[in-house]
Design brief:
80% of the residues lie in helices and 0% in strands. The chain is mostly helical.
Length: 179
């Protein structure tokens, strides 16, 4: 292909109008690659947490744990899944009004709420796991070290999650300020 062919192709590139249907498919939020990754992550978490719920009673001696620990574990897992589902639908279907500045402000408020709920459900879930698995455990020095490592890991993951949420919120605040 020589330069003249390339120039003529470039000139013809914008001449073919796209239909409304093609434009709608190109601009749909659902088709975004980041949402696909989130959907895969979300489905993997649902499968893993559902498997945990199905096998915790027999596989992890849930029958020998107190009723409160069982209820706390079930509620925290269900809350975690529901929170992820709400967050995914919120991200997948953003509400866009006529005024872009108002839409960005609304999205920022929504992200703040979502961040709070997400972090709270994560802390509740981690706490429920620790309570459930350490109930009636005889601790030795080695088990205390393992538990400390697990708690430290959970705190680091919580911190990185918090930082990630703050970046997302700051991004939308910056977009709002730019308008």
């Amino acid at each position: 292909m020589n330069i003249d062919d390339l120039k003529s192709d470039w000139r013809r590139a914008g001449n073919e109008p796209l239909s409304e249907k093609q434009l709608a498919m190109m601009t749909r939020v659902r088709n975004h690659p980041s949402l696909r990754k989130l959907r895969i992550k979300f489905m993997t978490e649902i499968i893993a947490l559902s498997a945990l719920l199905l096998m915790y009673y027999d596989g992890f001696d849930g029958a020998q744990k107190p009723l409160l620990a069982n209820i706390l574990l079930i509620i925290s897992i269900v809350l975690y899944i529901v929170n992820n589902a709400l967050g995914y639908t919120q991200i997948q279907n953003p509400s866009v009004s006529g005024n872009l500045r108002e839409a960005l402000a609304k999205q920022t408020r929504s992200l703040k709420r979502l961040a709070f709920l997400s972090l709270t459900s994560s802390v509740l879930y981690a706490t429920a796991l620790v309570v459930f698995f350490t109930y009636q455990m005889v601790f030795t020095q080695r088990k205390y070290i393992i538990l400390s490592g697990l708690i430290l890991s959970a705190l680091l993951l919580f911190y990185y999650s918090w930082i990630s949420w703050q970046r997302k919120i700051a991004h939308f605040k910056q977009l709002e300020a730019d308008f």
